[in-house]
Design goal:
Length: 130
């Protein structure tokens, strides 16, 4: 995470705001708690990722199986054939643990979006050669 002082943020807000385009910026203050400047989309992705991980943890703990957890969480997985569901579960499980450990959820959200897109294609009658 990049850093800037509160004073530099007040004097050159455009420069500090430009740093936030590359990720969060820690804004340090002498007499108060530090602040973090993020793009709204970064915060939204982080919140969506944390919510997804929490849902997956609950569902996996109940079913003890990632594929069953996906069936429970996402109705669209019923449109995937068994091989696709297995591949989806494997791919999601890898990304799930990496996201939970690193606190970075973009790749996990991309995997879910990709499989949802596959299910959407199936729903619209597109035959996929999988």
């Amino acid at each position: 995470m990049k850093e800037a002082t509160f004073t530099s943020f007040l004097r050159t807000p455009r420069v500090v705001a430009a740093l936030a385009e590359q990720g969060g910026v820690l804004i340090t203050r002498r007499d108060a708690a530090d602040l973090v400047l993020l793009r709204a989309s970064d915060l939204e992705n982080r919140q969506a990722g944390i919510a997804l991980v929490a849902q997956l943890v609950r569902a996996v703990l109940r079913s003890r199986d990632m594929a069953a957890a996906l069936r429970e969480l996402f109705a669209w997985t019923s449109l995937l054939n068994d091989g696709e569901l297995t591949a989806c579960a494997c791919e999601l499980e890898k990304q799930f643990w990496a996201a939970a450990e690193l606190g970075e959820y973009d790749a996990l959200l991309v995997v879910v979006a990709g499989w949802r897109s596959t299910a959407r294609s199936r729903a619209s009658g597109v035959s996929l050669g999988v």
